[in-house]
Amino acid sequence: MGEKKTPNPFIAACNRFLYLEVLSGEGSREKSSEEEGQLSAETVRKAFATILTEISDDDGWASLSQAGNILTKRFPSFDVRSFGFMKLTPFIKSLGAFEIYSVPSENGNVRVVYVRNKN
Question: In what order do the strands lie in the sheet with 111-117?
Fold first, then answer.
């Protein structure tokens, strides 16, 4: 955890890095986010598309949770709350570049979400 002014090498050394401003609710969606060392939505969209290409099945579908875990490993400072969302699925939908579908899990209590690049 740290502030937005945390140097990038310290962020890169972490498995997961959270901005204190996001946790306290002070984070916002600003155009200057890249200047502050944060990711832009476009950077995340491109990285997510690449991840899906790497891990998808023959039809292009991949588990959203698996893709999200890889995204977090590649960008330890990534947090959907920085973009004004509470969960990954609505954020990915907002990017407009991906198809999403979900199915009930075997026990029916949870839905498994799949995602692929739009053609």
Answer: 62-63, 111-117, 98-104
What CATH number has the domain bearing residue 35? Answer: 3.30.420.610
Residue pair 2/10 in contact (Cβ under 8 Å)? The answer is yes
Which tens digit of pLDDT belongs to each residue from 28-64?
Answer: 444 344 434 568 899 999 999 999 999 999 999 999 9
Q: Which residues contact 42 (CB under 8 A, 6 or more apart)?
A: none
The domain total for the chain is: 1
pLDDT of 106 strictly over 60:
yes
Residue 60's domain comprises 8-117
CA distance 88 to 118: 18
